[in-house]
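Usage

Read records sequentially. Each one opens with the input sequence:
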Amino acid sequence: MLAVVKKASLLLVAIVTGAAAITTGAQTPTQRPGVRPVTIPISIFTKQELRDGQTEEYVQANRLIVKEDNDEQEILSIRSVSDSPMSIAIVIQDDLTNNFNLQLKDIAQFIRDLPRGTRVMVAYARSGSIQVRQKFSDDREAAAASLRIVTANASSGPRSPYSSIEEVTSRFEAMPAGRRAILLFSDGLDTTGGLNLASISQSFDLDQAILKSQRRSIAVYSFYSPTAVTERGSSLFSLGAQGALQKLSDETGGRAFFSGSQAPVSFLPYFKDLNLSLNRQFALTYLSTHMKKGYHKVSVTSTNPEVKIEHPRGYYHR
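and closes with the structure output:
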């Protein structure tokens, strides 16, 4: 972990140039009329890092540009958060096929290997409700031990893997603000609107899951694993369900992991990529000039074309 922190610190030096000067003066930036501070999590990589899965010692991010609702905003600060404890909810869809149970050992080891101080919750989702096996705790061993096999029984009637996200996000209310993530193991198939591609990729529960996660600054990392329905059904439904998982992760600043419509042989390569994302996280604070309540679109780019930045696509101001 120490080496990763050093790499993150080097990156931080490269991108805060010019931001520090903003905080000087008689009037602090947040006291200016007509502006308000906004902080979002961002992850910064080079495209080469993403291809190779290996972090580099130094990344020249050049100047970062933040736009909100297409208007460029003023950056106040960019802080490394690699030393900040993280709150992670492990959410497992309970009707995944038995192949998922072969991955439990690797998931348990991933939990044990999380940095000291990480708060972990483990829950199983079924029919819109969750069974909490482990409340948020920094006891990673207890969290790993709380994992159980999935029942693998197909749900009767329409169901949505996203309807339980609202309850999961509410559990973060008691957690300190900062680094928050949900790791969702699911097939992503919402059948509440019928078995058609439009309703699968544009479901109400999916949109609500995105909204609730954005409101609480929770990045959702989704891991595709099939149920009996997606394993035996049309491949088009599997692709549509994966697209829904992709949308959930993209809109909340996370990442979707899947490879084809079959159960992954191992989650270990995904966990390697996930660790790369988590170790390259920063907290970016900027001044928003949009005072109206509601949803605001956000984009963060770099003047270096070789740099890729992951971040929430927007947030709700209340």
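Summary fields computed downstream for this record:
- The chain has a mean pLDDT of 82.
- The chain has two domains: 2-82+280-317, 86-277.
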